[in-house]
Amino acid sequence: MSMAEAVARADADVRADARPAAHMRLKALDVVIAVAAAALVAFTAVSAYGPGGGQASAVIKGRDGEWVYPLSTDRELRIAGPFGDTIIEISGKSLRVADSPCPNKTCVAAGSIDRTGQWLACLPNQVIARIEGRREDGGVDASAY
């Protein structure tokens, strides 16, 4: 067999194999699964990025439990810990540790937080405060290049 004949024969074999097999056709269940997957993706995107609400709230966790307070109402909270009470102040839609019985008071020196995702902690006294909810400015909380 010459080289030209071998190439022609291989080309004919490839063309014969290129037809879709009967078992490879799209079936009705394939379409249902594709539509369900697309609907799930759309629902997730709207839930995560769509309009809607919920105000930002302060979530305070101490050794006795976890509490949620709206940032829109000013208040002073006493959260019990192993060293005594940590005083958390919510005012002007921000949150800060006003005083704590811990030895070095790093939590007090940290200042106030006012954005979703930020947190403060008094680790020696086992008190953690964080802000959860939707960002009011609608922006991203971080970006990478």
Structure characterization notes:
28% of the residues lie in helices and 31% in strands. The chain is built from three helices and eight strands. A four-stranded antiparallel β-sheet has the order 2-1-8-7. The longest helix is centred in the first third of the chain and has 22 residues, at 28-49.
Strand content bin: 25-35%
Mean pLDDT: 83
The CATH topology name of the largest domain reads: mini-chromosome maintenance (MCM) complex, domain 2
CATH class of the largest domain, named Mainly Beta
Task: Please count the helical segments.
Answer: 3
Give the strand tally: 8
The helix/strand class is alpha+beta
The largest β sheet comes out as:
4 strands, antiparallel
Distance between the termini: 59 Å
Percent in helix: 25-40%
Kindly provide the radius of gyration, computed on alpha-carbon positions and rounded to a whole number of angstroms.
Answer: 30 Å
The domain tally reads 2
CATH superfamily of the largest domain: N-utilization substance G protein NusG, insert domain
Shape: elongated
Strand order in space, largest sheet: 2-1-8-7
